[in-house]
Amino acid sequence: MGKKKEKKSTLRIVLMITIPILIVGLVVGGFFLKNYLDLKKPIDEIWGQTYYLYLKDVKDSNKMEEAQLPTDMKNAKINFYEFKSVKDPVMTITYEKEVTNEENKQVEKEQRTNVYYIEDEKVNNLVYYGKTSVEFLYNIEEEEYDYYIHRYDEDSDTYSSLSKQVDSLINSSTEQENCSNEEGKEENCLEALKDYTFKENEKSSVTDVNGNEISIPKFDETFVKVETEDNSIDYNLELSEKELKKKITVGVENYQPQEDIITEKVKSAIEETIKQVDAKHEEMKKAEEEVKKKEEEEKAKKEAEELAKGYAIGPYRLKYGTYKNLPMDNISITITLSPNGKCHYSGKDPSAGTSNINTDCTYSQTKEMYYGVMTYFLTMNFKSGGSTSWQMTKSNAFNNQWLSFEYKG
Do 126 and 112 form a contact (C-beta atoms < 8 A)? Predict the structure, then answer.
């Protein structure tokens, strides 16, 4: 009887110890099993799983150089973007890299951008060297939204369509061109097409009639920047497999196609900005027209003043109009000087005083020695043939040895 009680007591103790251990074992095992299954379960979106496996392989197989990811990169961010012309979303990795400014010999942080796209279930990369960023812009001329790579050069900014870059690579049978990085080494990359380049402070401007400048930046004439949410996820090469998958999953969940970004509010803001640009262009056009009108008026006034002064011939002036010879000459000759070197002669032929001529003519000036003095002459060439010259001794008058002419109006 006593032995039975002792056996029951021992069994109870064993069970009291074993069952909790089994329960803990099951819980722990279940936890690890769940983590294992979660880790092996693919990300819902195929493209997200493709990028995850690519980045996992980059770390596991030490393919940082192949992926163009420097080991010393800082503050790396991953983003996913929709390109209308590309089937799967595109992944970008922006990061900071320390570079030496050769001008001031100081170390500076430079933001760079790598672009990754899927082609035939394989991830390819597109690398941009130098300071860059990705911006979502509305192209006013093309009337479309697109993602652009913004390259910051020393004295200019260049914007190139990322979707066109990637689309050209996917649909091209040629390999990517080689280009040099900042160390002068050949790298497999594609230089951004410089679709839109703006010099520093480049602008369209006019000056109004009051001397005030009316201007608009060239960028604002071309693009409208669209404000977007920051859906980036932090990234570094030290992430564990679990951490990496979790971050990519979050990135996939936060991914916004363009139709979700381009809301009615965004469209209204874009329209309002374009109206302001159009209004500025109209203001500039009006100012140009007013300036042109003023210039034409001033030109006409100056021409009128010059016409009033007459024809400049050496130090003298001949007003345009009619000139008659003096009555004491006993003959009647009328000469009319018009602008543009045209004239009319009516009266006795200066080379043969017995006949009359009535002809159009042209006039010009000559300068030659006359009785030891350098003298200006008004020379006329008659349309009917022949010519004559008149000596200049004062303004609004001319003469030869036998005739003297004065201005009559």
Answer: no
Residue 54 in this model has a pLDDT that exceeds 60: yes
C-alpha dist (Å) from residue 33 to 201, 247, 296:
60, 21, 88
What is the rounded distance in angstroms from the CA atom of residue 286 to the CA atom of residue 4?
113
Cα–Cα–Cα angle for 334, 336, 340, nearest 5°? 160
Distance CA 41, CA 120 (A): 22
Taking 50 as the threshold, does the pLDDT of residue 179 lie above it?
Answer: no
- Residue 205 · residue 215 · CB < 8 Å: yes
- As given in the structure block, the two tokens for residue 160 are 């190139």
∠306-312-316 over CA atoms, to 5°? 120
Cβ(114)–Cβ(126) under 8 Å?
A: yes
- Rounded CA-CA distance 274/205 in Å is 18
Place of tokens 């006593």: 2
For residue 334, the cross-strand partners are 324, 346
- Residues comprising the chain, all counted: 409
Average pLDDT over residues 201-227: 95
Residue 68's closest CA among 170, 179, 153, 174? 179
Q: How many Å separate Cα 167 from the centre of its chain?
A: 22
CB distance 235 to 52 below 8 Å? no
84-111 pLDDT, tens digit each: 888 999 999 999 998 877 667 787 889 9
> Nearest-CA neighbor of 365 among 318, 303, 323, 409?
318
Q: Which of 125, 132, 152 is nearest to 68 (CA)?
A: 125
Spatial separation of the C-alpha atoms in residues 375 and 382, rounded to whole Å = 22
Q: Kindly state the tokens that stand for 115.
A: 């672009």
Burial of 21 (0-12, 13-18, 19+ CB in 10 A): exposed
Cβ atoms of 104 and 89 closer than 8 Å: no
Q: What are residue 216's phi and psi, to 5 degrees? A: -150, 130
- For 253, other C-beta atoms within 10 Å of its C-beta total 12
pLDDT reported for residue 174: 43
